What does this fold into?
Amino acid sequence: MPQAPAGSPPALFFAAIYPTGFLAVVKVIEVVGGALLLSGRFATLGLTLVGPVVVNIVLFDIFLAGAFNPLGAAVAVFSLIVLYGKRENFAGLLKA
It folds into this structure.
C-alpha cells in the first residue's frame, strides 16, 4: 500500500491510531478470524470477527482514501459469499 501524502485524511487517520496500538489489535483479530474461517468448523465465529474489519476497510476506502480499492472490494465480496453460505447461523439476529 503506498504511503498517503502528509496531511491527507488517510495520513492523519493512521497518525492518530498507529501510536495507540489499535492496529496491532486489529491485526490479531484479522489473523484469528481468518484462521477460524479457514478451519471451516468455526467459520461463523470467524466471520463475526472479520466482518467489522471488512466494513471498516470498505468505509476507509470510500470516505478517507476516496478511491476504489479492488482488494478491499474483493474481500467484501468474498465475505458476503461466506455470509450467504452461513445465513442460517445469523438468522436469529434478524428475527423480530
